[in-house]
Structure formats: structure tokens, C-alpha cells
UniProtKB/TrEMBL annotation:
Positions of Mn(2+) binding: H36, H83, D172, H176
InterPro entries listed in its UniProt record: Fe/Mn_Superoxide_Dismutase (IPR050265), Mn/Fe_SOD (IPR001189), Mn/Fe_SOD_BS (IPR019833), Mn/Fe_SOD_C (IPR019832), Mn/Fe_SOD_N (IPR019831), Mn/Fe_SOD_N_sf (IPR036324), SOD_C_sf (IPR036314)
Name of one Pfam family that matches: Sod_Fe_N
Reaction equations catalysed: 2 superoxide + 2 H(+) = H2O2 + O2
Descriptive protein name: Superoxide dismutase
Organism in which the protein naturally occurs: Cephalotus follicularis
Length: 206
């Protein structure tokens, strides 16, 4: 099992953005997207390659190194997973960014939250209230066949909240996702990001 995981993580690479860095302006600046993708995400990718050292520490019963590397790999592996999904969660307005979900997902959101506007209000409130850095996620809970919201600290992957959860939409509330443009106005960033949300992708996943 671990050997398979090691092979998988050793081949992790930085995915291309499905649009140009400046394509989400004015909601998200091109400078932020370039740094976010090519610096922050690239760092997470690079650090997932520490897994062979973890396997060595396990084989040598090196508990201290084992604990340290597990934490590092969870953080960076989660960062890679979360960001790889996040890039697909966004799309330029010209390509449908901000257009509301229709059909099955739209109906599920209405059923669970009352309306899309209510879901957005809830996610914005959770994102604004999150202390420190993390993510606000809308997910499908297959075990109960419902749409649900989760908040994640730092770069925890959604699986830490439940094995049956599948992420549909993730909003990044790390400062590196908005600070160059919005400074400390996280609420303004949260309001504007919905203009470029790719509900079509979320609907396909759902």
C-alpha cells in the first residue's frame, strides 16, 4: 500500500491552469494567480516528493522523523489536492464564470440550503469567520446523498472530514489567495470570487 502511494506521489506534477493567469480579472488579479499557481502550488508539489524519506523512516523505526514527515506530507499533499481542484472551480466570466448551477446540482442546493444565494451567504460567513488559513468546501456526501459544507484548516484534504465526501467547490481563504489585491478585506474577496465560480464543473462532478 505504501509503496503504491510512494510511486503515485513521486509522479505528482504541477497541473496547468485551464485559463490564462489574468483571465479571472477583475475578481482575481493576474499577479495573484501567477504567484499562487507557480510559487505556492509548485512548492506543495515539490514537497510531496519527501514520501520516500517517510518510508525509510518507517522501515528504520525512526519515530521522530516519521512524525515530522507525516505532518509535512499531509500538509503539502493536501495543498496539492486542494489547489488542483480549486483551479477547475474557477473560470473566466466569458466562459460561464458565475453562471448558477442548473438541473440536478441546482435542485440539490435549493433543497438543502433554500437557494443558491443562501449557500453563498453561508460559505461567505464561514470563510470570513475562519481563524487563520484554510478552505470552505461544498461537497457531496454520498453516504446520505446530500450537499453539505465543510471548513478545512490549513491544507487538510476533505477526506479528513469523512471518506464519503467528494469536493464540488472549494474556496481558498489563505491570505496568499487574495492579499495582494484585497489586503485584509477577506469579505470583499469572498463576495467577488463568486463572479468566476465554475458551477458547470461542480455540476459535472456532482
Amino acid at each position: 500500500m505504501l509503496g503504491g502511494q510512494a510511486r503515485g506521489l513521486q509522479t505528482v506534477s504541477l497541473p496547468d491552469l485551464p485559463y490564462e493567469c489574468d483571465a479571472l480579472e477583475p475578481a482575481i488579479s493576474g499577479e495573484i494567480m501567477q504567484i499562487h499557481h507557480q510559487k505556492h502550488h509548485q512548492t506543495y508539489v515539490a514537497n510531496t516528493r519527501l514520501l520516500p524519506l517517510l518510508l525509510q523512516a518507517i522501515s528504520e523505526a525512526d519515530v521522530s522523523t516519521n512524525v515530522q514527515l507525516q505532518s509535512t506530507i499531509k500538509f503539502n499533499g493536501g495543498g496539492h489536492i486542494n489547489h488542483s481542484i480549486s483551479w477547475k472551480n474557477l473560470t473566466p466570466i466569458i466562459d460561464g464564470g458565475g453562471e448558477p448551477p442548473r438541473e440536478v446540482l441546482g435542485s440539490a442546493i435549493d433543497s438543502q440550503f433554500g437557494s443558491l444565494e443562501a449557500l453563498i451567504e453561508k460559505m461567505n460567513a464561514e470563510g470570513a469567520a475562519l481563524q487563520g488559513s484554510g478552505w470552505v468546501i461544498t461537497a457531496k456526501a454520498f453516504a446520505i446523498n446530500k450537499v453539505t459544507n465543510k471548513t478545512l484548516l490549513l491544507q487538510d484534504p476533505l477526506i479528513t472530514k469523512g471518506a464519503s465526501l467528494v469536493p464540488l467547490l472549494g474556496i481558498d481563504v489563505w491570505e496568499h489567495a487574495y492579499y495582494l489585491q484585497y489586503k485584509n478585506a477577506r469579505a470583499e474577496y469572498l463576495n467577488n470570487i463568486w463572479k468566476v465560480v465554475n458551477w458547470k464543473y461542480a455540476s459535472e462532478v456532482y
